[in-house]
Specification:
Length: about 500
């Protein structure tokens, strides 16, 4: 893989008249249109002063324009930096400053609030794009020439930075190269047999590796097409599934579809493939899905830093509760987290991976990067797992107490810090508790100051000002003392046990 991601996509466009993207409203974009529109965005970015290697930060709703902006940024040789639409202005200020972004593209409704934050962070320009795909960057692109000579980029050049949440302290920017993205998407096209005949139902967000890289890059590299939905909506998905051949989702999508009365075997009899990832798909959902539809969901495992690492087989058993085998070109092993000693088959340890999929390191954090790689180049994922006798990898838990809610990562430390800052809080612990809809629900346990006047709704309201909605605890519980071990560490396992059923109780699900 010597070329840039876009050069690899371009080289595979066989027919400019083929449809690349459709919207739910019926608009369609051919590969020829896609070349033109992304060329216009690339021209507009360069006219705005974006130079090769500059970071283009983007916090916008999903639309066709967002897609063209992503491709335009790649063609201009910029580094695409997508940001979760739920991030607050305070959260954005850190990302913009840390990445030293040249440009921020945001929703027009947030322009006032973010322009000040951007200026303070040293960002040169702020442009807008709304949920319908209109805004100042759209206007500039439409006025710019469609012809654009792509800025040459090699496989090792940076294509994107995606911020992961920090377990302690700050978020880290995962640096992904053109070669990382292209090689992984090509491996997935092969593993999942994606061809030009496929139509992917795309209901994932496009600020995360799953919706942005796994879904979009595989579609474009295969010359396939996708139906681009602004978000997951079970009614709309049920309506559009008859026009699709494949779907990629987080486990929540599949449990929501199972809860839909019109979701049955006949509706999806023509489908070729359902893929799940980003969080554990419960064996129960896997089995219920198969019983209802006859389809075995294909579960795969990856992370922002590594792209996709493993996949259940396309042909052969898709084993519930496992994430399958390493993708071609990916080496995977299980090691003792402390000593790094390689463990035998069947033993539980930390999952380590090496291959062309693994990122270049954390943006401007050489020590953190060094700490997460072994001397022989294996990346320490932080996920705990084992390899079974047939070679299937199973993930048993997460090293760092990461919570995954609706496919989004929440690191407890960040939420705890906000809670601890509230008046009347002595200390807090944030855990994930099983949630029927979100996989895990962010749950806060607070030990208040003696006599403090503090309640659940007050805490949730206060946190909404500081944290993206998906990070705000769904339940806040109060105890006199948090359980601690002899070393003084809060025993989160004990808390997880105590509150295991909290979202299973009637009326407690929110
Ligand atoms: P992200 O960087 O947001 O993609 O999150 C990556 C993390 O999601 C991984 O380190 C895993 O902990 C988790 N993850 C992704 N896919 C799966 C899966 N199929 N099963 C269990 N955990 C998963």
């Amino acid at each position: 893989m010597k070329e840039s991601l876009f050069a690899t996509i371009r080289a595979r466009i066989a027919d400019g008249n083929r449809v690349a993207v459709r919207t739910a409203a019926g608009a369609s974009v051919t590969y020829g249109d896609l070349l033109e529109a992304s060329g216009r965005y690339a021209s507009a970015l360069v006219a705005l002063g974006v130079r090769p290697g500059d970071r283009v930060a983007v916090q916008v709703e999903k639309s066709l324009s967002t897609l063209m902006l992503y491709l335009g940024a790649l063609r201009a040789g910029a580094v695409y930096l997508p940001l979760n639409t739920g991030y607050t202005a305070a959260e954005l200020s850190y990302f913009l400053g840390d990445a030293e972004a040249r440009l921020l593209v945001c929703d027009p409704g947030r322009y006032e609030a973010l322009a000040a934050v951007a200026a303070e962070a040293g960002v040169g320009r702020v442009e807008t794009l709304d949920a319908a795909g209109h805004g100042s960057i759209y206007d500039r692109a439409m006025a710019a020439p469609p012809e654009f000579e792509d800025v040459p980029r090699g496989a090792d050049d940076l294509a994107a930075i995606l911020y992961t949440s920090g377990t302690t302290g700050r978020s880290k920017g995962a640096m992904l190269s053109h070669g990382n993205l292209a090689s992984n998407a090509l491996a997935l096209c092969e593993a999942w047999r994606i061809t030009g005949d496929d139509v992917l139902l795309h209901a994932l967000p496009v600020f995360h590796t799953h919706g942005l890289f796994v879904a979009i890059n595989t579609t474009l590299l295969a010359g396939a097409s996708m139906i681009f939905l602004p978000r997951f909506d079970a009614d709309l998905v049920v309506e559009l599934l008859p026009r699709a051949t494949t779907m990629m989702g987080v486990p929540t999508f599949y449990s929501r579809l199972l809860a839909h009365p019109a979701f049955d075997r006949a509706l999806v009899a023509h489908m070729r493939l359902f893929v799940s990832g980003s969080a554990p798909l419960s064996a129960e959902v896997h089995k219920a899905f198969q019983a209802r539809t006859g389809h075995a969901i294909l579960e795969r495992y990856g992370m922002t830093e590594t792209n996709m690492n493993t996949s259940n087989p396309y042909e052969g058993e898709r084993r519930p509760g496992t994430v399958g085998m390493p993708l071609p070109g990916v080496e995977l092993r299980i090691a003792d987290p402390e000593s790094g000693r390689i463990l035998a088959q069947g033993e539980v340890g930390v999952i380590e991976v090496r291959g062309p999929n693994v990122f270049l390191g954390y943006w401007r954090m050489p020590e953190k990067t060094a700490a997460e790689f072994r001397a022989d180049g294996f990346f320490i994922t932080g996920d705990m797992g084992l390899i079974d006798a047939q070679g299937y990898v199973a993930i048993v838990g997460r090293d760092k107490d990461l919570i995954i809610t609706g496919g989004f990562n929440v690191y407890p430390a960040e939420v705890e810090a906000e809670i601890d800052a509230l008046p009347g809080v002595r200390e807090s612990a944030v855990i994930g508790a099983p949630h029927p809809d979100f996989g895990e629900g962010v749950t806060a346990v607070i030990a208040p100051d003696t006599g403090a006047e503090i309640d659940e709704s007050g805490v949730r309201r206060a946190l909404e000002h500081h944290l993206a909605k998906f990070k705000v605890p769904k339940r806040v519980l109060f105890v006199d003392q948090l359980p601690r071990n002899t070393m003084g560490k809060i025993q989160k396992n004990a808390l997880r046990d105590t509150y295991r059923d909290i979202y299973a109780l009637p009326g407690s699900d929110r």
